[in-house]
Design a protein that fits this description.
The structure is a single chain. By secondary structure, the chain is α/β, with parallel strands linked by helices. It has one domain: Alpha/beta knot (3-Layer(aba) Sandwich), CATH 3.40.1280. It contains 5 helices and 5 strands. The protein has a 5-stranded parallel beta sheet with strand order 2-1-4-3-5. Helix 3 links the parallel strand 3 and strand 4. The longest helix has 19 residues. The protein is globular, with a radius of gyration of 15 Å.
């Protein structure tokens, strides 16, 4: 199974969104998605960056492929994302880590660590919805690769 990680600033405390996220995670067959929540520091980018870096260091001692999710990142359709994701997973010996920052974005130390930036949309979403959209896109990417009819 292919492991990928999603680090999010802040906790998902919405009882309506949690079951949807869990349903998509449960459907995954080829990808094991690990979600890690780090503490929000009320828009203090340096402290939030410290939390993210600590989590990255616990996930990989030898470096990781860091991909920031931001409205300013590269736009892809679902098929392009599926291709991108599976190339990243299959061609890298390092863990793949996606990050959703806090309300004010990312601190400079995280920006300097990134390898790529992706956008779910040029629109801005609440972090809870961005997280759910990302989890759904991981599932969709897997179904596209498997030629499953979910993606039409």
């Amino acid at each position: 199974m292919n492991d990928i990680h999603l680090i999010t600033v802040g906790k998902l405390k919405n009882k309506n969104i949690e079951p949807l996220e869990e349903e998509y995670k449960k459907r995954l067959k080829e990808i094991s998605l690990h979600i890690h929540e780090v503490k929000s520091h009320e828009e203090n980018l340096d402290k939030e960056a410290e939390e993210i870096i600590k989590k990255i260091e616990t996930l990989s001692k030898h470096g990781a492929s860091i991909i920031l999710l931001t409205e300013y990142g590269k736009l892809m359709d679902s098929k392009e994302f599926s291709t991108f994701l599976f190339k990243k997973i299959e061609n890298s010996s390092r863990p793949t880590i996606f990050i959703i920052g806090g309300a004010s974005g990312f601190g400079n130390s995280i920006l300097s660590m990134k390898h790529e930036t992706l956008s779910l949309s040029p629109m801005t979403f609440p972090h809870k919805l961005a997280r759910l959209l990302f989890v759904e896109q991981i599932y969709r990417a897997e179904t596209i690769k498997a030629k499953h009819p979910y993606h039409k």
